[in-house]
Amino acid sequence: MDGFDRRFQPQFHLRPFAYAPRAEVQPYYDMAREYVFGDRMFESNQGPSFPAHLYMISGTATDPSIALYRVASNFPSPPAKPRSPGCDALAGSTVNTISPADGSAGPTPFPCFDRPALSDFLDDRNITWRYYQHQMGAGLWHAFDAIKHVRYGPDYANVIDPPETILTDISQGKLAGLSWVMPYSAHSDHAGVASSAEGPSWVAAVVNAVGKSKYWRNTVIL
């Protein structure tokens, strides 16, 4: 150990060393034992929630209007205003970017980008999709709100609130060809954010719903 944790504020000092007791995440162990456990995987981006969710829908966190820089932070300015990036962010909001080449700081654009997303490829092939999220508008986990042609086009009708709507869609035979499912903050496993231990149960509920439906034979769950 090189003392990297010493740079954190005292209240965050132990976060890098935290783990979830097995009893709290038993559904994950059950699914890993029955199916596949990806234990040699690393996230592609170097940044917090906002760029991480951009990766999930577009495979990148770049700003196409700023060559060679990637979104690195989800803290818009001025800091006194709510930290909710996207095309619906408050006027004056910005996000930090970095150069992948050397990690140097880049421009600070408004968090609304117009680049290809996976939804575009699905549309081209007439494959339906939905993105289930908690509430509408700007948000750290509201990735499609930050894609301009989706946010201001007909595809935004595929962004669904609340996320548990997917359970109804499955039971009614209305599951789309591809679905992204976000949790409520309380139902996530996000360190320092989740206010309950319901994350594993929420994931298991979605998996079990698919397992009891007609979709089980031809559905991949990641």
Overall description:
- By secondary structure, this protein is of the alpha/beta class.
- The chain has a domain at 118-218.
- 23% of the residues lie in helices and 6% in strands.
- It has six helices and five strands; from the N terminus they run ααββαβαβαβα.
- It has helices at 26-34, 49-58, 118-124, 148-151, 165-171, 199-211, and strands spanning 70-71, 97-98, 129-132, 159-160, 178-181.
- The chain has a three-stranded parallel β-sheet, covered by helices on one side.
- α4 links the parallel β3 and β4.
- α1 packs parallel to α6 and α5 (165-171) packs parallel to α6 (199-211).
- The radius of gyration is 19 Å and the shape is globular.
- The mean pLDDT is 87.
What is the helical fraction, as a range of percent? Answer: 10-25%
Please give the alpha-carbon distance between the first and last residues. Answer: 33 Å
Give the rounded overall mean pLDDT.
87
Number of DSSP helical runs: 6
Largest sheet: 3 strands, parallel
Write down how many β-strands occur, each being a DSSP E stretch of 2 or more residues.
5
- Unreliable spans are none
Shape: globular
